[in-house]
Structures are given as structure tokens and as C-alpha cells.
Amino acid sequence: MFSPNCFFAGQKEPYMESLHVTADAETLINRAAHFISLGRPGVARPLVAAARALAPPSPELCLIGARLAAASGASDRGLVELDQGIAAAPDHAGLRKCRANMRQRTGDLDGAARDAAEAMMLDPADPEAKAILGAVMLDLRRPAEAAACLAEALTSAPSNLDYRHALATAMEKGGDVDGALAILIDGIAISPTSVTMRNAAILLCIRRRDFNQAIRLGEEARSLGIVDASTFGMQGHALSSLGQHSQAASAYQEARKLGPEDEHVRHLVMSSGLMTNSVRAPEGYIRTVFDDYADRFEAHLIQLGYRIPGAIRTILQGHPKIAAGQSIGPVLDLGCGTGLVALVIGDLPLGPFTGVDLSPRMLAHARAKCLYGTLRESDIVSDLMHYEQRWPLIVAADVLCYFGALEDLLARVHQRLEPGGWFVFSVESIEPDHDGVVPGNGDWALQRQGRYVHAEHYVYEAVCNAGFRIVHMERPVIRQEADAGVPGLLLAIETVRRDS
Q1: Which CATH topology does 290-495 take?
Q2: Residue 2 pLDDT grade (very low, low, confident, very high; cuts 50, 70, 90)
Q3: What are phi and psi of 238, to 5 degrees?
Q4: Average pLDDT, integer, range 71-81
Q5: C-alpha distances in angstroms, 133 versus 94, 140, 152, 262, 318?
Q6: Which of 97, 136, 367, 396 is the most exposed place for a label (fewest CB within 10 A)?
Q7: Other CB atoms closer than 10 Å to residue 442's CB: what's the count?
């Protein structure tokens, strides 16, 4: 969002403890604007009142009044004031821009677009009006129109980094990722010390899996001394994605120094300590991570657009027994976490449910849902070995990403399924980087946050060798990460032979 007369983010000057008495309305308005930009609407309020007492109504007084209302959390009052101001001065472009900005903030995107377009017609040379319209078009999911507006704004003001960043976003949303990166790289050349511009370029490199360039941009930032916790965190992501886990660990440690309270950074530091040749994540790591994560687990997954429980539900609706109106049970939920899968599939003719998880805090959240007949605190492989019960259905959502080699787990699951039983599970897919290099051993690789990714051919071979046949397979986007989809595999497999 751009900040014209109504919402500019001015330079923060030192707080003025005393005000000189003045009878100049313009000076009072300027001082009020200064305090609003400092986040001090209470100080600005008497200045605005004094200015109104000294001068007749004007667009400038309307603008500062609207800004004050917005800063005080009273956008409705600000919009009323702007409506009145525009009625009195319909040809004032600044009022239109201000109302466009406020309407955008309050969710009235169509109204914001009309105001921004009107401001452009009133002042065709104003890049700010074009930038506001571009931002609104982006919110309306019309990236091509957004890019056109923002490109015009940037042509008029090539040094404006906000316009440049927004144009890159619009181009990326429109599918021109290479062009978006070029816009950001040019911005870095114009303003080499801009942390925001450089971090945006690093993030875009990660999204396009150009990890080498992301690392180079991060190293340049380090040499210039303009890094922040995000810079180091993204550099660690890129290094980890290339299998350079010791270097990633160092980057994550630096990120933690700059962001010691950041829970996500703490998670990255922990995961970077995993052994790169380990075939699975250690039990202690899993327990600690998810105990720390339990209270915000579900809200965070919703924010990331997590889709696997719903996709599992769709698959199970096609199970022959359920399609025939029969029930399936009991059901074993491996790595049940807070009980999201049972919550989503609980209305199907399934159950009773048994959940297994390493994290006691995650299990506490699952227990509170009252969906499970039994909950066990255990490693899932140990649980499969210890309990000899056979199941017609076993599910594991977003659990096998903590295993590199899958053969042992699949063998244990096979032993615990009834003849014809189903195992429904997800894995994250391995992907080559921008240069076509496949990480890891070609079958699986350890990635950031201690998760493993798997090659489709390896999953197929491991499943078949374990005595299963694939009933259903799809390639969903599991969730969003760094505003990019995380590709995965979702499979329903069925036993085709019994072990002796």
C-alpha cells in the first residue's frame, strides 16, 4: 500500500517535547502530520483542532483530519470526512488518493480503484496515483493491470523503492518471475544498502529455486553490513536446500543472534543441527520442536494453507466400503499431532481412532477434542513394533517428511494392516534447483526445518517392494512456504500380500 497525503510514512525526527505557540494553521497542520507519522495521534489531535479554529474548511484540513481519524482507529469517521471534502472539492486529486488508500485499507477495493483512477485523470503526471491504482489492482488479483500501472509509476519515479517492490510483486503474480527479479536487482543497484530490496530479491530467488544466486545476494549483504535476521534465515534456507547444512547452521545461528525471540528462527537453528546422513529425524528433536509448536500449530497451518487432511478425506470417501455405505474401523493415526486429521474425517463412518505422537503437548490438544478412543505418546515405528493389533486403515498426514529412508516404516505398517487394508500418507516431493541439480542421493534429501523430501520413483519402488499396490496417488500442493507452494505426493496404498 502506498502512502499519499493521507498515509505517508515520513522520516521519524526526534520527538519534540515542547511546541512553540503559533497562529499559523499551515504550521499546525505540518506539526500534526509529523506527530501522526511518529504514531502519536494524541499529540496531533489538539494541533488539528487549533488549525480548524484558525482557518476555514479546506482540502488540507480534510486530509489531516482523515489521517488523524485513521491513526486513531476511526477509519469510518475518516471516510465520512473525506466524502464531505470531495463533495466540496471534487477536482482535488489528493483527496481522491487519500480516500482510495483508506478504502483499500478497509477492504472496499472497487471503491479504492474508482478513486485512484479518478485521481489519475485529475493529475495524469502523478506517479503516486498510478502506484495506488496498481496496488489496488494487485489486491483485486489483476496482476497484469497492476504491473502496467506500477510500471508507469516507476518510469516517472525510478528511485522509488516502494513502487519497484510492488511492480516486482505484480510481475511475479503475473508469471514473469525473471522480469520481477530483474526489477529487484536494478533496485539493489540503485540503492545497494536497502535491506528490504535485497531481502525481496533473495526471497524471489528462493521461490524460483535459484539458491546459488540467493546465497550470493546474502553474502553481498553481509559484506556491506546490511543484514537482518531475515537475510540470514533465507541464506540458511538456500544453503540447506543445496545440502550445505553446516554452512546453513552458521547462517541460522546468526539469524538467531539478530532475532533471539523468533520461534521460527529457533526451529531453524534446531533443525540445522541434524546429521545430514541420518535416515530420519531424531526422536528428541521431534518431541522438542512440536512441544514448542503445539499451542500455535493449528493456527499456523491454517495460515499456510495446509491441505492434506481435507485431501485425505476426499480419498477416503472413495474407499469401496465407505462408498457402499459400510464403516471402517478401528483407525490408527500415526503422528496424530493435535488431531487435525481425525477432526476432518470424523464425520465419515470411521473409528474408533487411536492416535500416536511423540509430543505430549500435541497429544494434550488432541485429547481436548475428544475424538480418540486411545492416545499414545510414542515414536510411530516403536509403536508399530510393540503393538501387534492389525488395522483396516492407517493414516499419516505430514509425518513421513521426518523420515529419509522409508523402507523400515513401510515394512512395519504392512505388518500391522489387515489383508486389503489401506495406508494413506503424504510426503514432500524432491525438486531440482534452478540449475537442474537434484539434492540428496536422488531418492531423498534432508531439507530445512529438519524435513525430508522424496523422489516419486523412490516412493513408488519402496511401496511396491514393501508388498503394497497403489490405489490412489495425487500430487497436491501441501502448504505455502515463502509464499510458494510446497509440492507433495498423497497416496493410498493397499496390502497385496501377507508377510509370514
Answers
A1: Rossmann fold (3.40.50)
A2: low
A3: -65, -45
A4: 91
A5: 14, 10, 11, 35, 47
A6: 367
A7: 11
Domain ranges in the chain with CATH number 1.25.40.10: 203-273
- Rounding to the nearest 10 degrees, give the CA dihedral for residues 69, 70, 75, 80: 50
Nearest Cα to Cα of residue 426 among 298, 317, 309, 338: 309
CB of 439 closer than 8 Å to CB of 241: yes
**pTM listed for this prediction:** 0.65
Q: Is the pLDDT of residue 153 over 70?
A: yes
CATH superfamily of 203-273: Tetratricopeptide repeat domain (1.25.40.10)
Distances (CA, A) of 472 to 305, 491, 494: 22, 6, 9
Q: For the segment 198-217, what is each residue's pLDDT rounded down to a tens digit?
A: 999 998 998 888 989 999 99
Q: What was the pLDDT predicted at 18?
A: 41
Q: Is the confidence at residue 17, as pLDDT, over 80?
A: no
Q: Are 371 and 342 in contact (CB under 8 A)?
A: yes
> Cβ distance 255 to 268 under 8 Å?
yes
441 in Cβ contact with 273 (< 8 Å):
no
Grade residue 299 by pLDDT with cuts at 50, 70 and 90.
Answer: confident
As given in the structure block, the three cell numbers for residue 16 are: 519534540
Using alpha carbons only, how large is the chain's radius of gyration in Å?
28
List, by residue range, all CATH 3.40.50.150 domains of the chain: 290-495
d(CA 500, CA 494): 17
Please determine, for residue 9, whether its predicted confidence score (pLDDT) is greater than 60: no
Q: Please answer whether residues 360 and 391 qualify as being in contact, where contact means their C-beta atoms are separated by less than 8 angstroms.
A: no
For residues 363-387, average pLDDT: 95
pLDDT at 318 over 80: yes
Range in 21-30, 115-124, 227-236, 333-342 the model is least confident about:
21-30
Cell of 212: 546459488
Give the integer Cα–Cα distance in Å for 98 and 128.
11
Q: Would the pLDDT of 365 be above 60?
A: yes
Q: What's the grid cell of residue 6?
A: 493521507
Q: What are phi and psi of 125, to 5 degrees?
A: -90, 0
